[in-house]
Amino acid sequence: MKTNLKQLSKQELLLFMEQAGQRKFRTDQIIRWIYDKLATSFDEMTDLSSAFREELQNIAVISSLTLLQRQVSKDGTQKFLFELEDGQTIESVLMPNSKGEGRFTLCISSQVGCAVGCKFCMTGRLGLKRNLKAYEIADQVISVKRFIVQQPSGESTKSGGDKPEITNIVFMGMGEPFNNFNEVSRALSKLTDLMGFSKRKITVSTAGILPGIQKLAESKPLVNLAVSLNATTDEGRNRIMPINKKYPLKDLIRACRDFPLPPRRRITFEYVMLAGINDSDEDAGRLVKLLAGIKSKINLIPYNQLNNSGELRTPSEDRVLAFQNILKKAGMTALIRKSKGADISAACGQLKAAYK
Ligand code: SAH
Ligand code: SF4
Question: Do residues 299 and 268 make contact, with C-beta atoms less than 8 angstroms apart?
Answer without folding.
Answer: yes
